[in-house]
Amino acid sequence: MNLLRWDRFRELDDMSERFNRMLGHAATARSSTEGNKDALTVFDWAPNVDILETPEEFQIKAELPDIKKDDVKVSVDAGVLRIEGERKQEKEDKGKKYHRIERSYGSFLRTFSLPDNIDESQVQADFKDGVLNVRLRKSQKAKPKAIEVKVG
User: Fold this and answer.
1) Would you give the DSSP letter of residue 45?
2) pLDDT tens digits for range 28-76
3) Nearest C-alpha neighbor of 62 from the set 44, 45, 78, 43
4) Phi, psi of 62 (to 5 degrees)
């Protein structure tokens, strides 16, 4: 079992993000700038994800409909997985008249803190039918091993 240090500010950020998403407001993320000060970066939306675990790996599936593969960037650095990109809105044609636009457009960012048992060199991502599937293989040392107990 991995112990995680409780970060009250991350809890506040998570709660704020969920509240803003519920109200339909833009997602936010903190990014480091010069002078070690935090700057607030506003993102237009955040894709929904499913996270699942098998004995060999973790999988993160993100819904990214109408997004081109070239508009998505996946990176892993210092135990953090970043999924970022942009969904571009169609240009208005003179023959089209929109009555309602409910889908979100613009830039997005999702970050995930990875457990210690992830092998960062074995991360794979594929994109098919509007779903990004990121596979995070567990390291060999993380797999449980049965130990025989001898009675003496």
Assistant:
1) B
2) 555 444 444 444 556 678 899 999 999 999 999 999 998 999 999 999 9
3) 45
4) -115, 135
Answer for the pair 108, 27: CB distance below 8 angstroms, yes or no.
yes
CA–CA gap between residue 37 and residue 31 (Å, rounded): 9
Q: For residue 108, with 0-12 CB atoms within 10 Å meaning exposed, 13-18 middle and 19 or more buried, which class applies? A: buried
Quote the pTM value. Answer: 0.65
Phi, psi (degrees; rounded to nearest 5) at 105: -130, 160
Q: How many CB atoms lie within 10 A of CB 63?
A: 12
3-state secondary structure of 53: strand
Residue 16: closest CA among 7, 2, 27: 27
Q: Which amino acid type is present at position 132?
A: L
- The C-alpha atoms of residue 39 and residue 28 are separated, in whole angstroms, by 10
